[in-house]
Write a structure and sequence with these properties.
By secondary structure, the chain is of the alpha/beta class. Helix content is 41%, strand content 24%. The strands form two sheets. Strands 4, 5, 6, 7, 8, 9 and 10 form a seven-stranded mixed sheet that branches. A three-stranded antiparallel sheet has the order 1-2-3. It is elongated, with a radius of gyration of 28 Å.
Length: 222
């Protein structure tokens, strides 16, 4: 227990353990100032932490994959998005993706294999079920990635198809991080040196960069 006595010129503390010391008014003011300063710094830190938590952005990556190539690229896109702090990533196949997933997302990235220079029919059906009335997807960021059998076999047409559909929903679409992936990420799986059964690292990097760019842009859309 401490008994505090305030005297005209001294701030005196008496301790039951036998200690007795005095603090002059100048030292007392310094102590009180430091206590207030520490309290302000703590509140600032807590408010910044809370702000970061509340403002966390959600990115949905939905894909269709028949031979696992598109799934592999989707996983790389997810890694790129997760490399940006303050972002939550949901990675799902299209048949597992719900309307709630779409509505909760700040950005939606869709992946598809290329069939006859177009996206897979399953992806067309998936996007036809997106909520439309009232523009609930308006101003969300959208992006695309595809896998194709050969070079110049329709991958850019498929990417643009996906982006066109997103524009119908009022979304803001973005491409990759440079001119070599202007419409999003893509991979070749069945031609020349790329016919290995695994995605080449150059395509994996494109997927990573796309996810990272979408996450970065989503963070800026506050």
């Amino acid at each position: 227990m401490f008994n505090t006595q305030i005297k005209p010129f001294l701030f005196t503390l008496n301790c039951n353990l036998g200690f007795h010391f005095t603090i002059n008014p100048y030292e007392k003011n310094i102590i009180l100032f430091k206590m207030k300063l520490y309290s302000i710094l703590f509140l600032l830190f807590f408010s910044q932490f809370s702000y970061g938590q509340v403002k966390s952005k959600n990115i949905l990556i939905a894909y269709y994959s028949k031979t696992a190539s598109t799934q592999t690229l989707a996983e790389e896109v997810a890694k790129g998005a997760q490399s940006i702090p303050g972002v939550q990533v949901v990675l799902k196949k299209i048949d597992q993706t719900t309307t709630k997933d779409l509505l909760n997302a700040d950005a939606i990235i869709v992946g598809s294999p290329v069939y006859n220079a177009n996206i897979a029919p399953e992806v067309v059906q998936f996007m036809s079920t997106w909520p439309f009335e009232g523009n609930p997807l308006k101003d969300k960021i959208g992006a695309a990635f595809v896998t194709a059998g050969g070079m110049s076999a329709g991958e850019e047409l498929a990417q643009v198809n996906l982006l066109h559909s997103m524009l119908i929903f009022g979304m803001i679409v973005v491409g990759g991080d440079d001119w070599t992936s202007a419409f999003g990420a893509s991979a070749i799986t069945n031609e020349s040196i790329f016919k290995t059964g695994q995605l080449d690292k150059i395509f994996l990097q494109k997927g990573f960069n796309l996810g990272k760019r979408v996450a970065t842009m989503t963070q800026k859309m506050r």
